[in-house]
Amino acid sequence: MKRKPLDMAKVAAVLAEHNVAEAMAVYEKNKSLDIELPFEERVIVDMVGKLAFYGSLSDKQFAFMARLLKAIPARVERDAARAVEAEAAAPIPADMVGKRLRVEGVVLAIKVSNGRFGPQTKMLVKHDAGFKLWGTVPAAAIGEVKKGDRIAVEAKVDASKDDAKFGFLSRPANLKVLVSAPVEMKAAA
Question: How many C-alpha atoms does 109 have within 13 Å on its Cβ side?
Answer without folding.
Answer: 9
